[in-house]
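Q: I'm writing up a methods section and want to include an example of the input and output format. Could you take the sequence below and give the corresponding predicted structure tokens, formatted cleanly so I can copy it straight into the document?
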Amino acid sequence: MTDRAVISVHASPETSARLGRLAKRMKRSKSFLANEAIERYLAYEEWAVAEIRKGIDAADRGEVVAETDVEAWVRSLGTADELPLPQSKNA
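A: Here is the clean output for your methods example:
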């Protein structure tokens, strides 16, 4: 058996009941499902933080697109004169 750490989580009675029902339907423990949910949450949040950091770093380097260029591009979507995706002039 692998090492495990115990994490205590306070949840509403409704959330606990939903977790219990789902665990029963899936023939899994509530602990298993809670761990899966935490793993997915962490993976997403770690990805989001990394992507935000990349965006901030790009902006710090001046790699930005003018708002007017983005607005013109969005207005052109789905038209016969669709514009290409705007690019930073400093990229």
